[in-house]
Amino acid sequence: MVAPAARGSAPLVTPTRVVVAVLLAAPFVGTLWVTSYARVEPRLGAFPFFYWYQILWIFLSALCTVAAYLLVRRENRRRGSSASTRAAEARSAGDTGTTTTTTDRTEGGTR
């Protein structure tokens, strides 16, 4: 079960995220529903529909992915700083979140 959002925080399910989910699901539905395009006609030049439909989805999938990326990026900017931005800022500040200490086993000390 999903925990409710904290007071004052943005909701987890937004209209933008629903659109992103549809954009990312469309290529799967379009290519996995084989009975919708398992035919020869209409031809595009020498290519039967079965083949050019699948090739068309290569380009449509790329467009859907780019659109989903841009929508998520815009929503993250609107929400404030995103998790990826915070992580990038931490890396640039030199904070990795973990401290490592190597032990020199031959001398029994730490470096």
UniProtKB/TrEMBL annotation:
<feature type="compositionally biased region" description="Low complexity">
    <location>
        <begin position="81"/>
        <end position="103"/>
    </location>
</feature>
<dbReference type="Pfam" id="PF11755">
    <property type="entry name" value="DUF3311"/>
</dbReference>
<feature type="transmembrane region" description="Helical">
    <location>
        <begin position="50"/>
        <end position="72"/>
    </location>
</feature>
<feature type="region of interest" description="Disordered">
    <location>
        <begin position="77"/>
        <end position="111"/>
    </location>
</feature>
<keyword id="KW-1133">Transmembrane helix</keyword>
<feature type="transmembrane region" description="Helical">
    <location>
        <begin position="18"/>
        <end position="38"/>
    </location>
</feature>
<keyword id="KW-0812">Transmembrane</keyword>
<protein>
    <recommendedName>
        <fullName>DUF3311 domain-containing protein</fullName>
    </recommendedName>
</protein>
<keyword id="KW-0472">Membrane</keyword>
<dbReference type="InterPro" id="IPR021741">
    <property type="entry name" value="DUF3311"/>
</dbReference>
